[in-house]
Design a protein that fits this description.
This is HdeD family acid-resistance protein. Keywords: Membrane, Transmembrane, Transmembrane helix. It comes from Dictyobacter kobayashii. InterPro entries: Acid_resist_chaperone_HdeD, DUF308_memb. There is one protein chain. The chain has one domain. It starts with a helix and ends with a helix. The protein is mainly alpha-helical. The protein is built from nine helices and no strands.
């Protein structure tokens, strides 16, 4: 089987990882909206946990892709590493949380969004239409720019922006996951897909 076919097999088999990333984002967004008496520290630890988990899943998918298509981009792996680093900084540096949390969130959103767009354009001809991932990246960049331009927004305003961002990202990732899972209907090597 050629490398592209192997990649399609691997992506479809691991569609649930993208779905899980979407579910995590939706949970994070709902928590930002509905947890009463949300504090800055609780927001920080929730954001850090999301970054760590999302980074681990992104790195896993990135290495799976590179293993099957050696010429493909490093962007997913870099995105995952960046998310993990940001998550660790926020978790391990509570003294700088109050002053710089908004900038950490904004920086993460812009860099991760740019890397998502790179990944989408690198893979669009190899797997399936990647516009959901590109849309996630664009929304992420816009969100980061808004926070950079208005860093002194009140806590509840930040929570509403973060919550909305996370919900939109989560829905887009879920859409991408189910779109990828649907590939098995149009691309169907029996020895692989019959077991999914």
């Amino acid at each position: 089987m050629d490398p592209t076919s192997n990649l399609i097999n691997e992506v479809v088999r691991n569609w649930w990882i993208t779905a899980l990333r979407g579910i995590l984002a939706i949970i994070f967004g709902l928590a930002a909206f509905f947890i009463p008496h949300f504090t800055l520290f609780l927001l920080a630890y929730l954001f850090a946990s999301f970054c760590l988990l999302d980074g681990i899943f992104t790195i896993f998918m990135g290495f799976q892709t590179r293993r099957l298509l050696q010429h493909t981009t490093w962007a997913p792996i870099l995105e995952g590493l960046f998310s993990i680093i940001i998550g660790l900084i926020v978790l391990l540096s509570p003294t700088i949380l109050a002053a710089f949390l908004v900038y950490f969130i904004a920086g993460w959103a812009i860099v991760a969004g740019a890397l998502k767009i790179v990944t989408a354009f690198r893979q669009k001809e190899q797997i399936a239409p990647e516009w959901p991932l590109a849309l996630v990246g664009l929304i992420s960049i816009i969100f980061g720019i808004i926070l950079c331009l208005r860093p002194r927004l009140g806590l509840y305003t930040v929570l509403w922006i973060v919550g909305t961002f996370a919900l939109v990202i989560g829905v887009a990732l879920l859409f991408q996951a189910f779109q990828t899972h649907a590939l098995k209907k149009s691309y169907h090597p029996p020895e692989f897909f019959d077991s999914i």
